[in-house]
């Protein structure tokens, strides 16, 4: 499969993607747990059919120490017993925030309250930002049909 358009080689979208990736780095440095970030990014990418992001976030999660069994269960997290209540709240918020156009009510007060039980305001802000960022990146990749399978995570720095 070949991409319809190489967004990185275009002046406008190349700059845009670099800024989006910078925003992603800010979120990685937030107080929102890295494992939660990867689970949320993976679930949003599954919903949006962004193959390259599914590839990226699965590999990044494994490199960060996430168990493959949990990654296999992200698509069916509601029926899986291996996620914490905090992770379930984040996944619920991510799904509702992603499926706005499906005629869903958006993020319900109940979902927000559940997330707020587990995350402080800065973490909630990071979670909302992650949902928004992932939906943007997913759409860029899905529309242009960016192929998956070639992602190699950056090496984890070793401690001296």
TrEMBL record:
Q: So which residues are the signal peptide here?
A: none
Source superkingdom: Bacteria
Give the Carboxymuconolactone decarboxylase-like domain ranges: 24-96
Q: What is this protein called?
A: Carboxymuconolactone decarboxylase family protein
- Annotated organism of origin: Nonomuraea salmonea
């Amino acid at each position: 499969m070949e991409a319809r358009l190489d967004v990185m080689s275009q002046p406008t979208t190349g700059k845009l993607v670099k800024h989006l990736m910078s925003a992603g780095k800010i979120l990685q440095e937030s107080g929102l747990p890295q494992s939660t970030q990867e689970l949320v990014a993976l679930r949003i990418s599954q919903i949006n059919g962004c193959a390259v992001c599914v590839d990226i976030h699965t590999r990044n999660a494994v490199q960060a120490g996430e168990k493959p069994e949990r990654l296999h269960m992200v698509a069916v997290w509601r029926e899986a017993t291996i996620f914490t209540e905090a992770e379930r709240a984040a996944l619920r918020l991510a799904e509702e925030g992603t499926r706005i156009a499906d005629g869903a009510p958006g993020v319900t007060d109940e979902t927000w309250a559940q997330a707020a039980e587990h995350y402080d305001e800065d973490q909630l802000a990071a979670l909302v930002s992650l949902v928004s960022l992932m939906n943007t990146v997913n759409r860029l990749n899905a529309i242009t049909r960016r192929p998956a399978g070639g992602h190699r995570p950056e090496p984890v720095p070793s401690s001296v």
